[in-house]
Amino acid sequence: MTRPLADINRDGHAALVRALGVVDAFRFLRQFDTGRGDYTAERHTWIGEVSLDDLVAEAREIDAQRGAE
To answer: What pTM was estimated for this model as a whole?
Structure first.
Protein backbone atom coordinates (compact mmCIF):
# COMPACT_ATOMS: atom_id res chain seq x y z
CA MET A 1 0.00 0.00 0.00
CA THR A 2 1.32 3.45 -0.92
CA ARG A 3 1.55 5.91 1.96
CA PRO A 4 0.13 9.40 1.51
CA LEU A 5 2.74 12.10 0.85
CA ALA A 6 1.53 14.03 3.90
CA ASP A 7 2.53 11.09 6.11
CA ILE A 8 5.91 10.71 4.39
CA ASN A 9 6.61 14.45 4.76
CA ARG A 10 5.66 14.40 8.45
CA ASP A 11 7.83 11.38 9.17
CA GLY A 12 10.69 12.75 7.08
CA HIS A 13 10.67 16.08 8.92
CA ALA A 14 10.58 14.28 12.26
CA ALA A 15 13.54 12.08 11.23
CA LEU A 16 15.55 15.14 10.14
CA VAL A 17 14.89 16.91 13.44
CA ARG A 18 15.88 13.79 15.41
CA ALA A 19 19.07 13.34 13.37
CA LEU A 20 20.14 16.96 12.95
CA GLY A 21 18.30 19.01 15.54
CA VAL A 22 15.78 21.73 14.74
CA VAL A 23 18.21 24.40 13.52
CA ASP A 24 20.27 22.16 11.23
CA ALA A 25 17.16 20.41 9.91
CA PHE A 26 15.77 23.83 8.96
CA ARG A 27 19.10 24.81 7.35
CA PHE A 28 19.13 21.55 5.39
CA LEU A 29 15.61 22.10 4.07
CA ARG A 30 16.38 25.71 3.11
CA GLN A 31 18.86 24.43 0.50
CA PHE A 32 15.94 23.28 -1.61
CA ASP A 33 14.05 26.58 -1.65
CA THR A 34 13.47 27.53 -5.28
CA GLY A 35 13.47 31.23 -4.49
CA ARG A 36 11.40 33.84 -6.26
CA GLY A 37 11.64 35.94 -9.36
CA ASP A 38 13.53 35.50 -12.60
CA TYR A 39 17.26 35.52 -11.87
CA THR A 40 18.24 35.61 -15.54
CA ALA A 41 16.16 38.71 -16.25
CA GLU A 42 17.09 40.42 -12.96
CA ARG A 43 20.84 39.93 -13.29
CA HIS A 44 20.83 42.11 -16.42
CA THR A 45 19.69 45.03 -14.28
CA TRP A 46 22.73 44.77 -11.99
CA ILE A 47 25.49 43.55 -14.33
CA GLY A 48 24.27 44.91 -17.64
CA GLU A 49 25.50 43.52 -20.90
CA VAL A 50 29.00 42.19 -20.30
CA SER A 51 30.72 40.35 -23.14
CA LEU A 52 33.04 37.39 -22.75
CA ASP A 53 35.88 39.59 -24.01
CA ASP A 54 35.13 42.09 -21.19
CA LEU A 55 35.27 39.32 -18.60
CA VAL A 56 38.55 37.93 -19.96
CA ALA A 57 40.11 41.40 -20.01
CA GLU A 58 39.02 42.03 -16.42
CA ALA A 59 40.38 38.66 -15.27
CA ARG A 60 43.72 39.37 -16.94
CA GLU A 61 43.87 42.80 -15.31
CA ILE A 62 43.25 41.29 -11.88
CA ASP A 63 45.94 38.64 -12.51
CA ALA A 64 48.38 41.36 -13.54
CA GLN A 65 47.63 43.38 -10.41
CA ARG A 66 48.13 40.32 -8.19
CA GLY A 67 51.41 39.55 -9.92
CA ALA A 68 52.63 43.07 -9.15
CA GLU A 69 52.00 42.69 -5.42
So the answer is: 0.48
